[in-house]
Design goal:
The chain is of the alpha+beta class and 188 residues long. It has 2 domains: 79 residues, Alpha-Beta Complex (Outer Surface Protein A, domain 3), CATH 3.90.930.12; 94 residues, Alpha-Beta Complex (Outer Surface Protein A, domain 3), CATH 3.90.930. The chain has 2 helices and 13 strands; from the N terminus they run E-E-E-E-E-E-H-E-E-E-E-E-E-H-E. The strands form 4 sheets. A 4-stranded antiparallel beta sheet has the order 11-12-7-13, with helices on one face. The longest helix is centred in the middle third of the chain and has 23 residues.
């Protein structure tokens, strides 16, 4: 008697428990809208080959495929959804430090732009465009970026850090810039 080969499932699945104070809406196949006390975050997961469904108090994630690649996509989708839930309940805050040793840097927020003046003695100000849905404050030598979408908060902080980068100078002497030094959950 020949033994039948064992077939692997054609998909991987996992689930996330939804907290009581969070509302989740799904538009097929994989557009997710998470609403909490701080606001609403929306994201489309169809590019990952994911299928989302709601059960009583559970959000089920199904990713089609086999092997490590499929497990990696499942883990990424699950982590993103958890970040959305944390964002609408607690929020995210990144803190950046303004470092100046050669020239006094002036940093201010105007609408959706962060303006850095007199950076290493430059004649024209550097204008850094910030994404919508992110709140940026300048307090002394600190720049505080906060919001409910972790992706947008991280994007704004990285744009600020990259927008104040030194070029064409010896980086061992010119340490001027704006650098991320703290990432935390919670709005402050």
């Amino acid at each position: 008697m020949a033994q039948e080969p064992i077939s692997k499932p054609k998909f991987q699945e996992d689930s996330i428990t939804i907290p009581q104070d969070v509302q989740v809406e799904i538009t097929p196949p994989a557009y997710l809208r998470v609403k909490g006390k701080l606001g609403v975050v929306e994201r489309d997961f169809s590019h990952a080959g994911a299928e989302l469904s709601l059960d009583t108090g559970l959000l089920k994630i199904k990713v089609y495929g086999r092997g490590r690649n499929c497990l990696a996509r499942l883990g990424t989708v699950k982590a993103n959804i958890k970040n959305m839930i944390i964002g609408v309940t607690q929020g995210y805050t990144y803190r950046l430090k303004i470092v100046q040793s050669h020239f006094p840097i002036s940093v201010k927020v105007q609408g959706n732009n962060l303006i850095v003046e007199n950076f290493t003695g430059e004649k024209y100000p550097r204008v850094i465009r910030l994404p919508d849905g992110v709140k940026v404050q300048v307090k002394g030598d600190d720049v505080i970026v906060s919001g409910i979408d972790k992706f947008l908060v991280g994007l704004a902080a990285s744009r600020i850090e990259q927008g104040s980068r030194i070029t064409r100078k010896d980086l061992r002497k010119f340490l001027d810039g704006i650098y991320i030094y703290e990432k935390k959950i919670g709005m402050s």
